[in-house]
Amino acid sequence: MASPLLMESLAATRRYVGTAVGPTPWIEIDGQRVQRFLEATSDESSRSGLGANRAQTAPGSLLLSLVPDLLPRLIALEGWTRGVNAGVDDCRFPTPVPVGARVRMSARLDRARGIPGGGVRLSFEVRFELEGSELPACTAMVHYAYFP
């Protein structure tokens, strides 16, 4: 995998708006990962889909939970000491992810703006590609605030 895109400072982030990075390597969404996620989130509505004779699909929220781990593999930001997950907008799950399938994530910096305290709020458009599918598994706008 290529090195992450280096953003050399909080002030420099505006220069990178519109920059696309990725994708990450493929990640298998195996049954053990799905089961651990369901146990951790107590997601009873999705748990019913794990029966031996049922179509098994991963909850969409599992993909979103991968973003904080995958984004730093694509983008390295210097000059911050504290980061905060500031939310998700416009999240879509166009196609289900069968257990055992593979996904990978790409991102594009959509917006960078200064916030009080000398920080920046970065908005990334993320896209999870599902191997073998023309439709993405997930698209979302994720927001993070970084402070010096």
Summarize the structure.
This protein has 148 residues and is an alpha+beta fold. 20% of the residues lie in helices and 43% in strands. The strands form 3 sheets. Strands 2, 3, 6, 8, 9 and 10 form a 6-stranded antiparallel beta sheet that branches. Strands 1-5 form a two-stranded parallel sheet.
Can you tell me about this structure?
The protein is an alpha+beta fold. The chain has a single domain, classed as Thiol Ester Dehydrase, Chain A (Roll). It has helices at residues 31-41, 44-47, 60-74; strands at 5-7, 20-21, 27-28, 57-58, 75-77, 82-92, 97-98, 102-115, 119-130, 136-147. The strands form three sheets. Strands 2, 3, 6, 8, 9 and 10 form a six-stranded antiparallel sheet that branches. The chain has a two-stranded parallel sheet with strand order 1-5. The radius of gyration is 17 Å and the shape is globular. 28% of the residues are buried. The model is unreliable at 49-55 (pLDDT under 50).
Total domain modules: 1
Structural class comes to: alpha+beta
How many whole angstroms does the radius of gyration measure? 17 Å
The H-level CATH homologous superfamily, spelled out, is Hotdog Thioesterase
**CATH architecture term:** Roll
Structure summary, number of beta strands: 10
